[in-house]
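To the wet lab folks,

You asked to see what we're planning to order before we commit. Fair enough. Below is the target structure as tokens, and below that is the sequence we designed to fit it. If anything looks off to you, flag it before the synthesis order goes out.
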């Protein structure tokens, strides 16, 4: 179970502080130990220098008990064989052996336990210049004061370290809470955002940091979601309108057929109308399925080698009767080149393009379906003589009924084009009407 961000920040800060304090404590302890030892050694050198001046008298210097603790400082003068020539009262036994004195050719320090001296003793052996046998001066002092100072320092570090870490943790907890407070406000605002209140946005802190960028990013995401939901609502309204029209026509035909006794010819005409409306409903259901799959990124495309001319003529043949009834000339112009496309998807796109063109072209107008293969691309265009588009460069949204903006059918065409890795463009023709072109990779 993962800890909250605030707790993790505090724990990380505490771990860093603990490691830092441990490093500082070890460094302080080692430095203090070395400094105290160096001070003891300096004192021993000074004392050896003072005592050496009176060594030839044969009288040992007695420490002033008012200035130092008893048995804290002492000295001896030893002969080369280790016997005591001169000593401080109470230190009868030789401080160094003859073997150790044999290695003393200059000032040399020793550390050992000396009877009667508290804690370890620090010794300095110095050879004396004498006309007779070799003699050595040994001065020493207790290291109890150094041990006490280091023990006191260790106590302070052991008690003060955890207290410092605790204070640092408290400070980190407070600072982390203050830093994460904008996230709490963002969380509360996000919890208040629902599908009915998508217009609300996250508060953007004026911090110029990651939190500000996160708030801006989330607001951008909400803007895109709002636009997507608006487009979805418009799409549903358009789909409802498209479904309502053929259903109303079906009901009207059935109601008229049931009002009174009908002749065979009238019933056949009614059934043909019902068949046409049913075909329209079936086509609309297929279109909606294409859009649903395209929105989820699952539009299936199965490429086959087909004739461009045969594909266009097959789609146009479906609308020849309708074009003749509307007094519209339907023309097809394309080479017989072979192209790799999904015939079913291309037919869906062409049916929507031709249906859109015939609905917007006036009686006596012309609808041209053209195809070409050039520069590694397949270009299919539908040109009509209708009113054109009010905003050819605008977004492809679902318009309310009665407008001439791109609608549901063109969304199908674009989904098919994108599924093939191509594009769809809409524009106004220079001689009037609209031009819709689909460009597919060859």
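Sequence we intend to order:
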């Amino acid at each position: 179970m993962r800890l909250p961000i605030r707790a993790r920040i505090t724990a990380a800060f505490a771990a860093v502080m603990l490691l830092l304090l441990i490093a500082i404590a070890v460094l302080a302890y080692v430095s203090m130990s070395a400094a105290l030892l160096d001070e003891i050694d300096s004192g021993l050198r000074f004392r050896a220098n003072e005592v050496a001046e009176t060594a030839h008298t044969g009288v040992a210097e007695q420490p002033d008990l008012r200035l130092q603790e008893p048995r804290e400082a002492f000295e001896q003068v030893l002969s080369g064989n280790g016997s005591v020539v001169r000593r401080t009262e109470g230190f009868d036994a030789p401080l160094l052996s003859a073997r150790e004195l044999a290695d003393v050719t200059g000032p040399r320090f020793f550390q050992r336990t000396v009877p009667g001296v508290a804690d370890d003793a620090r010794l300095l052996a110095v050879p004396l210049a004498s006309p007779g046998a070799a003699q050595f001066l040994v001065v020493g002092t207790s290291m109890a004061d150094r041990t006490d100072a280091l023990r006191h320092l260790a106590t302070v570090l052991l008690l003060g370290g955890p207290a410092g870490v605790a204070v640092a943790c408290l400070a980190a907890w407070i600072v982390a809470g203050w830093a994460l407070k904008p996230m709490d406000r963002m969380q509360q605002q996000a919890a208040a955002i629902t599908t009915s209140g998508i217009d609300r946005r996250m508060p953007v802190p004026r911090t110029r940091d990651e939190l500000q960028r996160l708030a801006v990013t989330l607001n951008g995401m909400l803007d895109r979601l709002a636009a997507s939901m608006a487009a979805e609502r418009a799409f549903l309204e358009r789909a409802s309108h498209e479904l309502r029209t053929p259903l109303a026509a079906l009901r009207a035909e059935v109601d008229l057929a049931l009002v009174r006794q009908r002749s065979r010819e009238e019933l056949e005409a009614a059934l043909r109308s019902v068949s046409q409306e049913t075909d329209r409903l079936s086509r609309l259901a297929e279109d909606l399925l294409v859009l649903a799959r395209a929105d989820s990124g699952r539009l299936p495309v199965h490429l086959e080698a087909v004739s461009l001319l045969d594909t266009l003529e097959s789609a146009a043949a479906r609308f020849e009767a309708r074009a003749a009834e509307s007094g519209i000339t339907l023309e097809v112009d394309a080479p017989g080149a072979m192209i790799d496309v999904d015939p079913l998807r291309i037919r869906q796109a062409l049916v929507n393009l031709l249906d859109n063109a015939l609905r917007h072209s006036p009686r006596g107008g012309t609808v041209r379906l053209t195809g070409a293969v050039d520069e590694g691309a397949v270009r299919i265009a539908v040109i009509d003589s209708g009113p054109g588009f009010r905003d050819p460069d605008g977004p492809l949204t679902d318009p309310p009924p009665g407008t001439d903006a791109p609608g549901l059918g063109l969304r199908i065409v674009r989904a098919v084009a994108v599924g093939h890795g191509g594009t769809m463009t809409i524009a106004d023709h220079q001689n009037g009407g609209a031009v819709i072109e689909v460009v597919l990779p060859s």
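Structural context that might help your review: The CA atoms of residues 74 and 88 lie 6 Å apart. Confidence is low (pLDDT under 50) at residues 391-395, 397-406.

Thanks,
Computational group
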